[in-house]
Amino acid sequence: MSLLTDHVNLNLSDCTDKIIAEYIWVGGSGIDLRSKARTLSGPVSDPSKLPKWNYDGSSTGQASGEDSEVILYPQAIFKDPFRRGNNILVMCDAYTPAGDPIPTNKRCAAAKIFSHPDVVAEEPWYGIEQEYTLLQKDVKWPIGWPVGGFPGPQGPYYCGVGVDKAFGRDIVGSHYKACLYAGISISGINEEVMPGQWEFQVGPTVGISAGDELWVARYVLERITEIAGVVLSFDPKPIQGDWNGAGAHTNYSTKSMRCDGGYEFIKKAIEKLGARHTQHITAYGEGNERRLTGRHETADINTFIWGVANRGASIRVGRDTEKAGKGYFEDRRPASNMDPYVITSMIAETTIRYFKVKFLNFQFHP
Known about the structure:
Helices cover about 25% and strands about 25% of the residues. It contains ten helices and 13 strands. The strands form two sheets. Strands 6, 7, 8, 9, 10, 11, 12 and 13 form an eight-stranded mixed β-sheet that branches. Strands 2-1-5-4-3 form a five-stranded mixed β-sheet, covered by helices on one side. α7 (about 260-275) packs across α10.
């Protein structure tokens, strides 16, 4: 008797040139991911060769029922770690039938910033540390925690090993390998300070690719937790009290920062970020005020400070960067539920073009 897994794992290349393309886009909340699949006549490696598609925006909170059609524009292709073979994942952004980006399409404005000659010349690199929490499906309580109760206090869990310290390692490891298979620039994983909380890092990536790759890495993680029967949370403070929140620390450098003498450019960039602290915080994720309290390795949300090796600062500069006189810095303010298109392009806009030219007409709210 055949099993369901036998059919799920069928290798289509044995019998047809056709492939399956899973189109992925950001839904109406700005953090939810949606996807649907279509059959293509053969392998495709260039997103511009893929057909545009449409969906019912009234069912995703992105259009009214009277005019519900939203158009998907394919933007980036990744190998599909679930169907495998020549099948692909396609990151898309969304437009009206007239060709205007819908309000939740943050990629379009980001792409304009990253294509500006000033920004292109500086080759902005990003490394994003995506923290997240795994929850028990029926009770929405972190995995490894007693239902209705609490584990021992923080301390032994960060990068911990052992059945009483590490919860969800099989899920995390599966996600790591699936991202590598997909072609995502995932550079590492680790357990976080709060039990049931983990982190993966994407980067270094250049420009708009940082947003594309982080969104697809989130999609892959959603699919794996779906299989595992575990709920994935990007809430920046999933458990109130004496527990660390969840962020998306964003490491950043430009060509000027990476060259000899780059430390001066780093300090100037940090000064520009400080001058626009309020605008950045507004765009750095919903509920971030519950996380940025000045405790649990954060700076207070209303305060901008930077320092070398200081994890209680808004911006942290590494010891290696200070010693070398060049390198990168880490913006520790973004929440785990931030939109990477908004964060990465806003940092580039502020540090490369701010004080030079008037800001582009860019909506910073995720």
